[in-house]
Amino acid sequence: xxxxxYLNVNGIFYILKxxxxxxxxxxxxxxxxxxxxxxxxxxxxxxxxxxxxxxTPISYLGFFSCNISKKDKKKIIEEIIENLYFDNLLYxxxxxxxxxxxxxxxxxxxVDIFNTRFSLSLEIKNTFFSYQTSQNLxxxxxxxxxxCNYEITLIYKLHKISKSVILSYFYFKxxxxxxxxxxxxxxxxxxxxxxxxxxxxxxxxxKDLKINIKIYxxxxxxxx
Length: 224
Hints:
Blueprint: E1 4-9, E2 12-17, E3 20-21, E4 31-32, H1 35-48, H2 57-66, H3 70-84, H4 98-117, H5 138-145, H6 149-162, H7 165-172, H8 178-185, H9 187-196, H10 200-221
């Protein structure tokens, strides 16, 4: 017998457990806006019975999104903005080596476009101990504030795992596809592996990261 089902109410799909609408800890209903996402969620939940970050990742992302209060969203936006100053795309080694040339060729245009889009002046730093000058982030903050909870969750999770707010933005806006996003995130790691080889531990870490990014991509592709 299926414990979890969904209920379509005027195009809003409520997730039910034992015929009752599920509430989040903040007392919001667990709901999504597409039937395809609702189906993915109930398939996961009927298989594993509970919401779990590892076993039911799509359900967890939906549940996390629905639980975001106005106060929570403000904190998430503040964290994204803080991490923008330490974006991986902005920091390079002081050595003019091949990896720096590779990063310049692949990353600089994204930084330039992002700066123009949000009226910023983020700079490429050739030392990891340099700091960005303070920026007027009103435009970027408004962009984030205008996102729905599902969208802010996606950018929040993507930037945490990729260490790049900038690349997460371009992936979210569908300016780069999934394969390009992965390749850019692992650009430096792949370069180092070709040069020095890889350890089994690093292979496991990279595999887990790619699996998580794939999960976020599935969630994203079923949002609308």
